[in-house]
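Can you give me the bound-state structure? Components:
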Amino acid sequence: MAPGLKSLGDVDTSIMAVLADGDLHGYAILAEVRELSDGRVRLGTGTMYGSLERLQDGGAVLAVAEDVVDGRTRRYYRLTDSGRAALVAELERRQQLVNAARNRLAGAT
Amino acid sequence: MSTPRRLAWAMHAFPRRFRAQRSAEIEATFHEADLAGDRNAYGPKALIDVVLAGWGERTRTRPPIGRYLKYRLVGGRLEPRWHAWMFDDLDGWFPLRRAAWTGIPILVIVAAAWRASGGLMPLPPPVFWLVWAIAMGLGARLDRRRTLTRHGYDPRTRTWVPPPIVVRWVPIPRRIRRAVPMLVGIAAALLVVTPFAAITLLLPGRSVRSVTIGSFSFERIVDHTVGVGWGAVAVGSVGLFVGIAKHRWIAARTLAPAAVVDPTAFVVVPAGPLAWIVPASVLVVGIVTSLLPLAPLVVPAAFLAAGCASPGLLVLARTARELERAGSGEVGLSTASHTAQPRRVPR
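Here's the bound-state model for the whole set.
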């Protein structure tokens, strides 16, 4: 877990997951999260920036570059090493939960 | 309201510092979503999401309730992690927030005094609250500077200055003392008390009666509005004590054990004995005068006279500060104000 992060919610995990393979700006993060979930998850812009701020404070995400495209400000975000480790730990935790649930389901049938 | 304006309005839910850093970026993201064909890019749901996220961010970044109350009510210091929040707090509606927080104790005192007088004490007229609001507005500016200084920032540039080396009981050259706004605290307390004193003086229901005790006879003013004079004393004493205790408390909290005796950068000097002499004198004088034959008249008159001096005290403290900031002249004017409050002295 990144030093300043107490826990990771679904939104945090989704954002970190789409940042895992490269730097992205705000709108690209929204689009990637939607794509990652086959259109089921539509992050609100406010929610995403709130989460990004929290992740930045916790040291999991870093703003690495800023540019202006057609007069619009874009800031690019990157997953830090500690953020990557936190994501891996969170995914393992969820995987364990899924496995445990599957085992119980299998036992019940 | 146009969509960008609606968005700008919704983004006020976020803290000021957040908006300063991210508003252009968030607007651009909304715009990109709109350009990409999202018909609900600026829809109510998206704007509500911004508001909720803003409130969440405010909640996340504000100090815990205990530290918040200490900071707000008695001027306690916040840890560095809350300093960004503090900067936001000191801007914008700070005078109003401060006035509200100061108003609550005043309301409690007024209500208690009114109840103690059995409902005889008149409640403050609207003009009192007007005067109070103006005093709060003026006080907010001073308080902003003091808050920044107390947290180790230069009030003008808001840059952090190195932490002071703390030394106990080190006498400091008079010329480098900085004015301490204890006078401001006293003046503020008196400003609160004065209207009550004035009202008490102007109340009808007094009469002069000849009193004879043994062979001794004197004229005594009899106050039929029992409790009104004592109300003024109570309010005055409480106001002064709260103000001075607050200064004293901060001074005590600012001190640390003298580990390093190397006064190269700053010296923090604890409050001197005068910090206790002032409130103790006020109390003694209050009790003594209330026992005098003319007490119902003397006590409010004393407070009224002192209250009239409070604007002068404010000007005095301000002038002293300006003199010292300019680095000119001996600080004789501010000597009287060096009674309580920690003093951070650049050497």
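A couple of observations. DSSP finds twelve helices and four strands in chain B. Chain B touches chain A at residues 10, 18, 22, 24-33, 36, 45-46, 49-54, 56-57, 60 (CB under 8 Å).
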